[in-house]
User: Fold this.
Amino acid sequence: MLLKKSPYALLLVVLGLLLVAPTSAFAQRDDSEDDDEEYPDDDDDDDDDSVDIEREESARARRQTRTRKRVVREVVKGAYAKMNIGPLFWFPPISGVTSTSGTQLDFSFGYDVLDRLNFTLSIEGSFFQLITNGDGVSIDLGIASPIQGDFRVFGGIAGIRAGPNFGGKRVKRFSLQVHAAGGVGYSPPLVDLQNQAVLTRIAAGGFPYIMQGRPLGIVQAGIGFEYYTRLSHFSLGIDFDYDLILGGPWPAMGLGIDIFLKYTF
Assistant:
């Protein structure tokens, strides 16, 4: 009834509605903007994940590049194991009562303590066994010998090896080595040393004792030549050794020529 009687009142109502409507619209827009700040879009998480993936791929690419640039070492030095085998040729006077040659076998373990491109210094220990046929059995055969029966010696030595490396400018596959070692060996008796008849024959030969049945000193010196193969951990070589066995009535001297196979870990 009031609206019908007063057009001004109707006008005031319309103006009020116009004023109230924009205010509520702005308020709703502000609320939506606040919601966006409180709950960010999931696209941001996707962006973070893609950044992490790109960083991981970049790091992997850098590692692969470093691996490709890493130089493969063709000649390996360090701890090694080695096996020697070859003949030993006896010198007089021991060669007069044994066969002129025997066989020796060594198992060696060592370490290259000084490794330079042009020079290597190593320490080495070896377990060895030497077998030689003996010609002198007793004085009854007219042979005066400090060895009764075959001559077998086993024991251990330790020493050093040093020498220059030569070959290419960056990879030197050849090595010339000088080595010296010493140790202790033992020759088991092949006759009954408690038998009085045996002792009598030994004494009749002019010897108070024989080389068997007692500790013996071992001295070794020589030179060697080594070639590092294309298989980076394997090398081949040959040693020329002067061997001296002390502790018996006679010194036993001989020249050993051994080929060897070496593996460096």
